[in-house]
Amino acid sequence: MEALKPLEPTPTTTAISITFAAALLLFTIGFILPTFRQWYRLRHVPGPFLNSITSLVYARRTLKDGSAQYVYDLCKKYGPLVRVTPNIVVFSDAQTFRYVCSPKANYTKGLWFEFSRWDLERWSCIAMRDNESRKERKRRLIPAWSGPGLAMMEERVDARVREFVGLVERKYVSTAPGEGVKPMEFGHRAQFFTLDVATGVTFGKPFGFMERDGDVNRYLEITEVMLPMFGILGALPQLVYAMHAWPLNKLMPGAGDKVGFGVLMKFAEDEVQKRLQPGDKNSELDLIRAYLKNGIEPEDVVQECITLVVAGSETTSVVLRMALLALLTTPEAYRKLQAEVDAYYNKANHKRDDSDVISYADAKELKYLWAVIRETMRVWPNGAGLSFSKQVPDTGDTIHGYYLPKGTEIAQCMLGVTRDKALFGPDVEIWRPERWLEATPERADEMWAAVELGFSTGKYICLGKQVALMELGKWFTEIFGDYDIAPVNNVSPLKLVDGVTWLSSNFWIRFTRRN
């Protein structure tokens, strides 16, 4: 049998070979080498191998329910520092949180914060990644949140609490069983309340969610559509550059929009301009006037106002919803809170008046109320996803014995921080307010110091912390004093999704007046 002769190269086969070799070389240079370099620089930090070579693993998780639990499970499996993407590591303890946020550590905010820039020519404090610029801006913001400013905010919160009670009276009071049930979907009504508080404090007047008892200019609808994007940016913060570049920047909200964030941006711009007019005789205090008085440029005041409304309303509404859910599903706790509220109003010097709302100072004396609020913030902490990451300084740093080169992003697992068994006890998975009353004062302070990290700490602490707590204390005291509340669906009170925040839907409840 005659042997096969080797094929002679032809111009066509030569061209194919060269093309294939070139493609392989480009693939190696463009993908394999960068991937190897990314993996290599943090190869010593434990975590799933696939997560160490691509961010798509975690990005895909953010599109599903349970992304916060996923990170928490990784922390339990791999230890105090876990690599969850090629350039993001996660810690799960309060001590590291405080260190990273301390001025001496010299960490800066991570790339994720760039997404909170609504105007690419301007910055809000939360979006500022340069520490010195942020420090100077915060110096000008702080006076508005204390003294007369805080007193003004309490008046505005009181007005919104009364408006919520009015909404219940107007549409949602159920009568005796069998005579008429008027259910309320509380998931959105909690946001209506917190959004109207935030806009009322900021602009001097609410946006009108409770008055309308519905979405305003599709703001909530568009917000809920955008929330998964925040989660994806937590995994792929580099995408923020694409979001701010043509053509994707054309899809970003703008003051000319007729719906969503754009309407809020136009509203903020108009309200700032009103206060700059020579004929503005209104001396009523609000955040806009306070910020302008403190020397913040008008365009930057607009950015601060938008950020406050977006960030402040969502986080507070989460605590409202989850605390009410926990109370409705824990009858003993429900009765204890209601008894404490009744005892407060039964005192001679605390006579119940329909026009009065409990003062923040008095609300802070209700021990079981704050045990409920703090326990809720512990079990369902804010900032549960990979958002709010920080960036390791140019000098690099060592965390939990692992060296992190400059540019590494480091984030917190809040579920790990607030479920520390050494601090909170072995039953950390259970919502149990009594743990706060059983603890010694010193231990309770230590527990709260960990939980309140949901407001951040150090140079990054949230200025709206006291207003958020004020809303919660006043709302629960007033509502539990006036009404009995029950879930419409006892088997499945709501649908809950954990991700960049705790999203709930179909949370139907009914109110009946108390005798």
UniProtKB/TrEMBL annotation:
Listed cofactors: heme
InterPro entries on file: Cyt_P450, Cyt_P450_E_grp-I, Cyt_P450_sf, Cytochrome_P450_monoxygenase
Record flagged with keyword Metal-binding: yes
First and last residue of the signal peptide: none
Keywords for this protein: Heme, Iron, Membrane, Metal-binding, Transmembrane, Transmembrane helix
Superkingdom, natural source: Eukaryota
Metal-binding keyword on record: yes
Residue positions binding heme: C462
Transmembrane segments: 12-33
The protein's name in its UniProt record: Cytochrome P450
